[in-house]
Amino acid sequence: MESKSLASTLFLFFLLFGTLAASPTLKSKPHPRRPLPCKRLVFYFHDIVYNGKNSKNATAAIVGSPAWGNKTILAGKSHFGNMVVFDDPITLDNNLHSTPVGRAQGFYLYDKKDIFTAWLGFSFVFNSTQHKGSINFAGADPLMNKTRDISVIGGTGDFFMTRGIATLMTDAFEGEVYFRLKVDIKLYECW
Length: 191
Prior knowledge:
Radius of gyration: 27 Å
Helix content: 10-25%
Largest sheet: 8 strands, antiparallel, barrel
Structural class: mainly beta
Oligomer: single chain
Number of helices: 2
Strand order of the largest sheet: 1-3-4-5-6-7-8-9
Number of strands: 9
Order of helices and strands: HHEEEEEEEEE
Shape: globular
Distance between the termini: 73 Å
């Protein structure tokens, strides 16, 4: 009788232990948490492409175009082959006429024939009482997506050697002459 009782007790012990050991809360490894950004900034930059008639207001110009294109009108429906350089004002809100806190300087090139997409390389250059230095960006910009992430690859001054992610969102556009991007910058390496 005692051996039956011992066997029953051992059976229940192993059953309970086996159930607990198989429990997902005990077995699973903790998920690594994504680090929180050390700094978060939001800016707007306003791009006005030169179209042959707006030289006083233009902040961007087509400097390269495919053989079938020209340098005052973006080529075809996807603008494939166009390269645009820019020196755009950066503002804290979406008003083009707000006081700029810096300049967005760089280029973008339209790099796909069949889809409206670009590749960006640019810097936000600051010289205000709030920020000094620059933040550098590079990456693919699939323009038809509502939000797009590009890499923050470095910086100078207040943003020395910073890295992170910038989420771009087209905030407004007027034909092929004007667009405004909202740039939500999340920095994960801050010095």
